[in-house]
Structures are given as C-alpha cells and as structure tokens.
Amino acid sequence: MGDEIVVEGYVIPKDRLYTGNDEWVKIEGERARIGVTDYAQKQLKDVVGVELPETGRTVEKGEPIATIDSIKTAAEVYAPLSGQVLEVNEKLQESPELINTDPYGEGWIVVIKPSKLDDEKGSLLTPEKYAELVKKRE
Q: Which one of 2.60.40.3880, 2.40.50.100, 3.20.20.60, 1.10.443.10 gives the CATH number of domain 4-137?
C-alpha cells in the first residue's frame, strides 16, 4: 500500500488526508473515497453494523453521513468534504467487520463527488498531522 506512518500501533497511510474525527479521504480524480482510520476501528472494537447514506444525497462537510454500530457504541461518520454521494460500500451490509479487518481498503464507506474540494481540502490533516493527534491521545 506504499508508505505509512505507524503511531502507537496505529497505521496511517500517507496516500490520503484525515480529519480530527478519524475519517480518511483518498482523492481519486473527481472522486473522494471516505472511510474511518485504523485508530477509529480499534476504539470501536467489533463492528456489527453500518448505516449508509443514500446514493445521490448531497452532504455538507461536517455533517453525519453514516453510522457505525459496534459492540461498544454507535459512532457517527462525518463528511470530511461537501459533495454528492456517488457510491456506498454495499459489502458492509453483509460484512460490517471489514471496517475492522481492512479499514483503508475493503472497509471504505462512501465515495463522494466533492463540490468544494479546493476550498475544503486545506482543512484536512496531513498524515503527519493526524499522527501527531493520535500520539497526543495515547
């Protein structure tokens, strides 16, 4: 998967951006793939369900776009960017544990078409900044 930073046992790939709420964003041309970080999935423990948004829905940066249910708690996933939901990861309906086993790959949550990428990208954290945040929490 290329370069990554490992902080306190949490993996942080360098090929994406992050939020302070533990979401990751991978820009893929006109699209942005979104999921939760290794840190988030380890805090949640065993994921047992995921509520996904409807495709076509328009989301604003910072609003909840999905809910992850685990044996411990329910956690909101917040939109790191504004845009329109193009795809949701249907596999999570049958296999929500993919968020635990492969948070940066098969466990992705949604793909959006960002509407304000140039304005909003600057508010996201670099892998290094996110690593500092995780380090402070541990």
A: 2.40.50.100
